[in-house]
UniProtKB/TrEMBL annotation:
<dbReference type="InterPro" id="IPR011006">
    <property type="entry name" value="CheY-like_superfamily"/>
</dbReference>
<feature type="domain" description="Response regulatory">
    <location>
        <begin position="14"/>
        <end position="126"/>
    </location>
</feature>
<feature type="modified residue" description="4-aspartylphosphate">
    <location>
        <position position="61"/>
    </location>
</feature>
<protein>
    <submittedName>
        <fullName>Response regulator transcription factor</fullName>
    </submittedName>
</protein>
<dbReference type="InterPro" id="IPR050595">
    <property type="entry name" value="Bact_response_regulator"/>
</dbReference>
<dbReference type="Pfam" id="PF00072">
    <property type="entry name" value="Response_reg"/>
</dbReference>
<dbReference type="InterPro" id="IPR001789">
    <property type="entry name" value="Sig_transdc_resp-reg_receiver"/>
</dbReference>
<keyword id="KW-0597">Phosphoprotein</keyword>
């Protein structure tokens, strides 16, 4: 899918939140909606479908049915866009970073997460994302 829409020059950043726990996903979306345009996905497949080059930051659950967070990340890397990605996990993130085949996530958030942790992580991710192009 290389026909992704170009981002309109604006200051608003877009965040994609993907977790199979709908209530949790919706809570994260509410937390982020004051500062960002938020897209939600309730499965890995929905996350891949919702992603395009206008997304600045992605928050992915590690364990989702169908496609895991790692599998979604691999698919997103092959698509247009430069979004930074945080992985939500119930596992110690230090264990996930070990090994040569560990995906290079930009942030790791350990569940249960607090609102301030999510907001700070997404702010860092959005700041690291390239600015909107003015083409």
């Amino acid at each position: 899918m290389n026909d992704s829409p170009e981002r309109a020059p604006t200051d608003e950043r877009t965040v994609l939140v993907a977790d199979d726990e709908a209530a949790f996903t919706d809570s994260l979306a509410v937390w982020l909606s004051d500062e960002y345009a938020v897209r939600t996905a309730y499965s890995g497949r929905e996350a891949v479908e919702a992603y395009d080059s206008t997304v600045d930051a992605v928050v992915l659950d590690r364990r989702m049915p169908g496609l895991s967070g790692e599998e979604v990340f691999e698919r997103l890397r092959d698509r247009p866009g430069d979004a930074r990605v945080a992985l939500l996990t119930a596992t110690d993130p230090h264990r996930l970073r070990e090994g040569d085949d560990a995906p290079p996530f930009d942030e790791y958030l350990t569940k249960p997460v607090r609102k301030d942790e999510v907001l700070a992580a997404v702010e860092r991710l959005a700041e690291e994302s390239p600015p909107p192009s003015a083409e």
